Amino acid sequence: MRDAAKTAEPPPEPATPSVAMITTLGLVSALCGLIIVGAYQITLDAVKENQRIATQRAIEKVLSGAARTVAWHALADGSLTPAAPGAQAPSGALTFHAAYDSAGALMGIAAEGAAKGYSDTVRVMFGWSSHCQCVVGLSVVSMRETPGIGDKIITDAEFLANFKALDVQLDADLKGLANEVEAVKHGSKTEPWQVDAIAGATITSRAVARAINDAAGALLPRLVPNLAKIENGP
Amino acid sequence: MSADRPIGGVTDAWENFTEGLWRQNPVFVMMLGICPMLAVTVSAINALAMGVATLLVLVASCALVSALRRFVPREVRIATYIVIIATFVTAVDYAIQAISLRLYEALGAFIQLIVANCMILGRVEAHASKNPVIPSVINAAGMGFGFAIGLFALGSVREVLGAGELFGVSLFGPHFQPWVVMVLPPGGFFVLGGWLLLFALWERRRRNRAEAQLLLAAGRD
């Protein structure tokens, strides 16, 4: 019995000096830091390029036929400046993309909006045209809604038809939207600023409407008074 | 224990590799890493990408841990392993962003969560920290492939049943009504259960046959 207890006991290990532990952790962390920075540097260009292509695709989807796009910042004081490629947006600035046709005339702008959906934030890009003061196209940038239900916002033709001419006019003093963009129960859309929700996916539909409402409500009051500035490119 | 003695020869290396592939398959036998397993296997491509990402992290971490095994004091080994695993997860995370943003969006937080996959820490602690680099890498590759195959087995079935597609290619034409529950979280459990049932039946048949043969041999004597 005593023998069994003796053999079960682990042999006493020599205590490791603290310095050795700290040195090991320090060296391993330094090595790992090098690996991470190396991986970041190697992939950086490809990641940036991927992001650019993804944005480009989303813009083309919401404003079909765009020959050239330029990114702009709408600053908090209401002025517009062209966004330098790769530079950080100044604080409070809203980014949007102006799209020009092959003749160089402004077709419209594309901007992103986001709102909380059923399971996570739904991020959308919408196209806006100055001719009708309305949303003319919608593309979902990212979402994690229920497959087969909420993800119909990407494919449902009836739902997407809402965004062919969704009214987002500004009110008389150009401070906000004249009418709040809102999702209404499936089949009860009566006004041009309403979004006919997908049956069974009301929460996700509402998130899309709110994303457009919030983003347009913030961006358009800065953009519309300065529209002449972006009409012919930077 | 085979893990303790040095491994030599082609047969041993093969044994070492197939341990994770079949006998100790992390998905179907050890049931490790269930969280990413159920969450990302909604389509074959997601499952395969997750499996390959985990495989790369596992092999790289095991190689480095094994190379450093003589220098790491016992007291700080877990901290060291986690730092090493997290490093390779970050590297794989960047690599996926560089390959495809759509895939990155689909896999979401589960790439970062590979850090917490107990299968990896388990392999590092139980095998790589006690064996030379080459056997560790072979064993890790076997486990990684086993995990990837397991995820693929779940993902492909779920995509076929839940969306009527495989790798995004429609299989049954436009009149197929997708079995949506299969791509929802409960579907993961259903399909995993189905596979386990299949393996258990297969194992029982094999055992029965072996017993029958034994009886036959005994009868002949």
Describe the 3D structure.
The complex is a heterodimer of chains A (234) and B (221). In chain A, 37% of the residues lie in helices and 23% in strands. Chain A is built from six helices and nine strands, in the order ααββββββααβββαα. The longest helix of chain A is centred in the first third of the chain and has 45 residues, at 18-62. The radius of gyration of chain A is 26 Å and the shape is extended. Chain B is mainly alpha-helical and 221 residues long. Chain B has one domain (10-205). Chain B contains nine helices and two strands. Chain B has helices at residues 10-23, 34-40, 44-67, 77-99, 101-107, 109-112, 118-126, 133-163, 185-220; strands at 165-166, 169-170. In chain B, strand 1 and strand 2 form a beta hairpin. In chain B, helix 1 (10-23) packs parallel to helix 8 and helix 4 (77-99) crosses helix 7. Mean pLDDT of chain B is 85; it is low at 1-7. Classes of the chains: A alpha+beta (234), B mainly alpha (221). Chain A binds chain B through residues 13, 16, 20-21, 24-25, 28-29, 32, 35-36, 38-40, 42-43, 46-47, 50-51, 54, 142, 144, 146-149, and chain B through 42, 68, 71-76, 79-80, 83-84, 86-88, 90-91, 94-95, 97-102, 105, 108, 162-163, 178, 180, 183-184.
Can you give me a brief rundown of this structure?
Chain A has 234 residues and is an alpha+beta fold.
Low-confidence stretches of chain B: 1-7
**Strand tally of chain A, please?**
9
Assign a percent range to the helix content of chain B: over 70%
Structural domain count of chain B: 1
Major β-sheet annotation of chain B: 2 strands, antiparallel
- Shape, per Cα inertia axes of chain B: flat
Listing every helix as H and every strand as E from the N terminus to the C terminus, the arrangement of chain B reads HHHHHHHHEEH
**Major sheet summary line of chain A:** 7 strands, antiparallel
What is the structural class of chain B? mainly alpha
